[in-house]
Design brief:
heterodimer, A: alpha+beta, 7-stranded antiparallel beta sheet, 5-stranded antiparallel beta sheet, 31% helix, 23% strand, B: alpha+beta, Dna Topoisomerase Vi A Subunit, Chain: A, domain 2, 9-stranded mixed beta sheet
Chain lengths: 583, 678
């Protein structure tokens, strides 16, 4: 037992350490995907790999999986007859062993109290390149199996009992493009994880192991209670939802496109089961399969938590293993959400976010006041080229948008659900890369209509100033974000390649690496979220404000909202009443 | 020379008058007049002059810390603004970094989308484009479009206009030309240029800073004008300077043009007050610790210099700002912080506060929730008969009742619950200090904790113990330290240029030219402010990073570029625990800070002191973590000087209460501070 005061103090200290790890990793790292996009994770876990605290700054899809990385790393070592020892630093990225996908490499440092293993300090980060078939680590959409995705590390000790394993570092340098950046980032991960381990060891020493362990149990039990109470407040019931992913829209094989994701949420007492049965079978030779541990579980946890324990409503909620205990996830072996090795998984980012949206769509039936309408999904483009004989690689995440919400329009042009990265400043990109960003604005007049309209997507254009290459990994070109409670569907995303030679191509949401000429322009129109509630109930002044802001055209105001804007820019009340009354 | 410092807080306006010749200081406190704080400021100054026996016309300088800008931002009460920006980028202000402030929230509101500084309808785009690395013109400015935009904004009744073009930090010509055109067609407009306000790369942050300047500009300008008017009417002929976030003061005119520099005006003065107090005892490694009713402000001072926030860590009201600021960390922990059990059954304290109204239960104004102040009362640490010098009595029974009720919910005794509240709030404060010290490679154990604000000296020793800090320093007038800090400043202006250069291929001539240019610019400003050349000082610095990194570290740019590079490696190791000495380093920004020396608060005359017997007010039981002890309560002004006084004891004075737990030693210095050896 631990007294409530000490429990509270130890929890604060653990969170403080996790924040420090994340802060240092972000500031030390080289690749823009980590330092600007913040696509990294930092967390502390106990000796069994149970999550204790995570960095508030890291992205959910990175910190969330860390406990899974550690548990599988321990199992892998045990199966080999090996164990963790003081002075070890362990690298792990096995998507069939807890990793979110191959490019998200974890560096794990054990924490000892005397001889006894008490926990781990770990970081993950999305690396620019991991030695896959084409440059970059996004847009590897034509990898046919796990081996085509790049290097696989299954519990590899890069430091063994305090001695650096130089051979591994040589292999990394020789098999990864842009290796100066990537290896620099890995070194930063090791340094940051070690700092966390030192701090955690000091904390254990300060309070003693029994008190520390009791406090850890107490903090996990506390989070579990919060989640169980939130679940218990729902009515018992079962709610099913289905959405579709594009898959490979240009594939002749129907098993590779327009694939359903299904979530059936059953709430009983203070527990929830999320059953993904009905989701399409895995695609055995294309990497849109989602690792069950590391992607699927995180997508489900994040959604349940964001809906039931929304930070804006409930304040700061500690993130640890306790939050996940009341949630059971079922996915049949061999489906997209639980693939079998060696099915490739590297491009699971957008399907996983669509899965999160599907779970929200199911929960919407239980708690309509706590969700948004359908979200617009994301897209990543890996831009690359050669400067001399060295690669440059730049990965840019193209934002989506949220659906309308009870009392507010959807968030415009943001990362959605389990992703929360940052864009790169135009002034940074153009200073350091042969690219020019020619446009970055909201996409006008396409949001899902609703009493609370969907968020707007962005329009973003990148021009190559020298010859290079690009690959695309995205979703949402075919299926519109869902409207809710009478709201209209949102709008799909589009991607155009306007070539320097005058040609123009509409690209699908997934494009394997292709050559690009100087002067070619990628024009991305982001998706718009679904509407929430009947658009005829939208405040006429809100419609007018959107017209004034150029976000909704007068024609759309009339067609979707039944609002007539006069030539003076004011709402024509009589005409509006007549129009709305007639519908 | 007579100086007056006025610091306006939420509840009180604190004032101090100092005669630089004699070292005499007189302090005063009046209620803040929220509708128009300039009323309280001028009334307070006149009252202070009366107490000091000084004619208003004899005051030479008034130095002012204000929350006008901060409040306008926090309450979103600024001007209706317009913006003129580069065609193709109308929504940089709205999209931001495409990141949501909260990871785990569907219902959150994003400040720059839900409450924009400039509505989209007033964001006009014009044809023009500059490109790196030098700011060369790719597309010339379409002047006619600027004119049309200005006319449209004028027609819409917009009187404050931000102009922000991509890459303008490399070449301000287009922004300046656009400003001239705007001024031609709309002469009364308040115009803010991004190349003036924050000439640094990162367009969202630069444009936001500029838009914030536009947003708060008119209210701040109007406030300064009202204050100057009132001063004149009252016969106060003193010149007026206003505290900036950067730890220096600026002229009223400068603040009228760049109000965004005053965002942290109030807390910045606190840090300076702490530095001044530290200097009285010869200490220059300090952690300043200012606790009021709702929040605690923490600042770090090393070698007498306060830490500056990195540009990427400065946020106000949810908006990022690229303006030089003292690194002040504010957390929701103060005397009014409320203890509660959260939905999961965990014991928490704060960040919610009972505020001034109803306040803690002990204030007897109807507060019914257990607060930190109530815990201090229950434990006997606050003397009910001597709170605020006896101006307010504390309701012990009410405090005990709310703590007792809370104790039942956490299944602890009343004393344990009260101790628990203090343990948790003190741990929160210690964590906040760790995040600004240990996490940045600074060892807090080498620093003194300077405790002020009404509640700082109540908590400081236990916080110091949690951090391994050896001594706590309590300034002469803890409740008025910020106002004192105002009297210790220089004029301080900052200039910055983004200037990407990589080690091994540095263009030293270009660097020198940039520094010289910035120094000329600041010197011209100082000359206009009437500063003599001999009183001007300049310090050069650079923001550096390893090539490829995204975060810069600021290092002094002294004798040579090589020295700056060496300093960067050393600082990287200190802050992050790791350096990459073989890697190339990129210079990102060059900075100059100019200081114009001003008359300052001197050293107060030495304290004469009394005796322990004279100082003893009463003694009574006080609960400490070590147990309950019969504890003497002393009057601060009668303590013997230079004599080690064993803890436990409690020191009373009008504006604060100092707790010295068992095992600690108290010393009242002739210089005016209390020093507690932990």
């Amino acid at each position: 037992m631990v007294d409530p005061v000490t429990a509270s103090v130890i929890q604060g200290a653990l969170e403080n350490i996790a924040v420090e790890i994340g802060y240092k990793l972000m500031r030390m790292s080289y690749s823009s995907i980590i330092r600007e996009s913040e696509d990294f994770g930092a967390a502390l876990v106990d000796a069994e790999g149970r999550g204790l605290a995570e960095s508030a700054q890291s992205t959910p899809l990175q910190s969330g999986p860390i406990p899974g990385y550690v548990k599988h790393m321990l199992a892998t070592l045990a199966a080999r007859g090996d164990a963790v020892r003081p002075g070890d630093v362990i690298m792990h990225n096995d998507p069939y062993g807890g990793a979110s996908h191959g490019p998200d490499v974890a560096f794990i440092v054990p924490v000892f109290h005397g001889e006894e293993l008490v926990g781990f300090s770990a970081t993950t980060a999305h690396h620019l390149d991991i030695g896959a078939l084409t440059p970059g680590s996004c847009g590897i959409v034509d990898a046919i199996d796990a081996y085509a995705e790049g290097l696989q590390f299954k519990a590899i000790k890069v430091w063994d009992r305090g001695v650096r394993n130089e051979a591994v570092w040589h292999i990394l340098r020789d098999n990864i493009r842009a290796s100066d950046l990537v290896v620099g980032d890995m070194e930063a991960q090791v340094a940051a994880s070690r700092i966390g381990a030192e701090r955690m060891a000091a904390l254990v020493a300060q309070y003693g192991l029994p008190t520390f362990r009791a406090a850890c149990s107490a903090l996990m039990d506390h989070a579990e209670r919060l989640m169980r109470q939130a679940i218990a407040a729902l009515p018992d019931g079962t709610w099913r939802a289905e959405t579709m992913i594009d898959g490979y829209l240009d594939s002749p094989d129907p098993a590779k496109r327009d694939l359903p994701l299904v979530a059936t949420v059953t709430k009983k007492g203070d527990g929830i089961t999320v059953d993904l049965t009905g989701t399409a079978p895995q695609v055995k030779d294309r990497p849109i399969n989602m690792p069950f541990t590391g992607t699927v579980d995180v997508a489900v946890w994040l959604t349940v938590r964001s809906v039931l324990l929304d930070t804006a409503v409930h304040g700061h909620i500690p993130v640890n293993e306790g939050l996940t205990r009341p949630i059971t996830i079922i996915a049949p072996k061999g489906c997209l959400a639980n693939p079998e090795f060696p099915a490739p998984t590297i491009a699971r980012f957008c399907p996983g976010n669509q899965l999160a949206d599907t779970v929200m769509k199911a929960l919407a039936q239980a708690v309509p006041e706590q969700v948004s309408a359908g979200i617009g999904n994301l897209k990543v483009i890996a831009f690359s080229g050669l400067k001399g004989n060295t690669h440059w690689v730049h990965m840019e995440i193209f934002e989506g948008s949220y659906g309308g919400r009870p009392g507010a329009d959807g968030m415009d042009a943001v990362d959605t659900l389990y992703a929360n990265t940052r864009n790169n400043p135009i002034e940074d990109i153009e200073t350091h890369l042969p690219l020019r960003v020619e446009r970055y604005e909201l996409r006008e007049d396409v949001a899902g209509a609703g009493r609370w309209r969907g968020g707007l997507g962005s329009v973003r254009a990148f021009r190559f100033l020298t010859d290079g290459g690009a690959s695309v990994e995205g979703e949402g070109h075919q299926h519109r974000p869902w409207g809710f409670l009478g709201g209209g569907a949102g709008q799909t995303a589009r991607l155009l390649l306007q070539r320097a030679d005058g040609g123009e191509e509409a690209l699908p949401s997934k494009v394997p690496h292709r050559g690009v000429k100087a002067g070619d322009l990628f024009l991305c129109e982001g998706p718009a979220g679904g509407g929430y509630g009947d658009p005829l109930l939208r405040d006429t002044e809100a419609v007018r404000a959107d017209v004034l802001d150029g976000l909704v055209s007068p024609a759309t105001a009339k067609r979707d909202y039944g609002v007539v804007i006069g030539v003076d820019g004011a709402v024509d009340a009589a005409a509006t009443a007549a129009l709305r009354g007639a519908r | 020379m007579i100086l007056v410092g006025v610091d306006v807080g939420g509840t009180f306006t604190d004032l101090v008058l100092a005669e630089t010749g004699t070292g005499r200081t007189v302090i005063h406190k009046v209620s803040t007049t929220p509708a128009d704080p300039s009323q309280g400021v001028v009334d307070g100054i006149l009252g202070l002059c009366g107490i000091a026996g000084v004619a208003p016309g004899a005051v030479g300088h008034v130095l002012h810390g204000t929350t006008i800008a901060t409040n306008a931002a926090l309450e979103h009460r600024g001007a209706e603004c317009g913006m003129i920006t580069t065609r193709g980028y109308r929504d940089v202000l709205h999209i931001g970094r495409h990141q949501r402030p909260e990871h785990y929230s569907i219902q959150q509101r994003i400040p720059w989308q839900a409450t924009p500084l400039v509505k989209r309808r007033h964001r006009h785009v014009v044809t023009e484009r500059l490109i790196p690395p030098t700011g060369a013109v790719l597309v010339p400015l379409a002047e006619e479009e600027v004119r049309e935009a200005a006319l449209a904004l004028k027609a819409a009744g917009i009187a404050s206009i931000a102009i922000g073009f991509l890459f303008s930090y490399l070449n301000p010509a287009h922004e300046r030309r656009a400003r001239d055109i705007v001024k031609e067609v709309h002469p009364e407009a308040f115009v803010s240029l991004s190349s003036d306000i924050a000439p640094q790369f990162r367009e969202f942050e630069r444009f936001t800073t500029t838009a914030m300047n536009a947003f708060i500009g008119p209210p701040v300008r109007d406030y300064v004008a009202r204050l100057e008017g009132r001063m004149k009417e009252s016969g106060l002929t003193a010149d007026l300077h206003i505290m900036g976030s950067n730890g220096g003061v600026a002229t009223a005119k400068m603040v009228g043009e760049r109000p965004v520099i005053t965002m942290l005006s109030g807390p910045a003065a606190g840090v300076l007050g702490g530095v001044w107090a530290g200097a009285l005892s010869g200490r220059d490694n300090l952690i300043t610790f200012d606790i009021g009713g709702t929040s605690a402000d923490i600042g770090i001072v090393t070698g007498g210099r306060f830490a500056e926030a990195t540009a990427r860590d400065t946020w106000i009201a949810g908006f990022p700002l690229l303006t030089p600021m003292i690194d002040i960390h504010t957390i929701g922990a103060g005397g009014g912080s409320i203890a509660h059990v959260d939905a999961g059954g965990a014991f928490r304290v704060g960040p919610r506060s009972a505020g001034a109204v109803p306040g803690p239960a002990a204030y007897g104004r109807g507060g019914t929730l257990p607060t930190v102040t109530d815990a201090n009362v229950v434990l006997g640490r606050l003397d009910p008969g001597n709170f605020l010098g006896g101006a307010m009595s504390l309701d012990v029974a009410a405090a005990r009742a709310v703590i007792a009720r809370f104790a039942e919910t956490v299944k602890l005794s009343v004393e344990q619950a009260a101790l628990g509240i203090l343990t948790i709030i003190n741990a929160n404060m210690a964590n906040a200090i760790r995040s600004r010290t240990v996490q940045k490679g600074i060892d807090p154990r080498g620093h003194s904790l300077v405790a002020f604000g009404g509640a700082g000296p109540l908590h400081a020793v236990e916080v110091a113990q949690a951090l391994g800090i050896a001594e706590v320093l309590v300034p002469p007038a803890p409740g008025i330290t910020s106002a004192m800090g105002l009297l210790t400043t220089d004029l301080r202006y900052d200039a910055v240029r983004t200037c990407f250069q990589v080690s091994g291929a540095l263009d030293l001539a270009r660097i020198e030219a940039a520094f010289a240019d910035m120094e000329r610019e600041i010197a011209a400003q100082f000359a206009a402010d009437g500063v003599a050349p001999a009183d001007m000082g300049f310090a050069r610095a650079g923001d550096l990073r390893y090539v490829g990194q995204g975060y810069e570290l600021r290092v002094a740019f002294g004798a040579s570029a090589d020295a700056a590079l060496a300093a960067f490696h050393a600082q990287h190791r200190a802050e992050y625990g790791h350096a990459f000495p073989d890697s190339a380093v990129e210079i990102v920004n060059l900075r100059v800070t100019g200081t114009g020396a001003r008359p300052k608060l001197g050293t107060p005359p030495p304290q004469e002191g009394g005796s322990l017997a004279a100082a003893l007010v009463r003694s009574g039981p006080v609960v400490f973590r070590e147990g309950t002890a019969e504890t003497p309560f002393y009057r601060r002004d009668l303590l013997p000087v230079g004599e080690a006084i064993p803890g436990p004891c409690i020191v009373l004075q009008t504006d604060s209460t100092t707790v010295v737990p068992p095992g600690c030693t108290l010393l009242a210095e002739a210089a005016g501070n209390l020093i507690i050896k932990v």
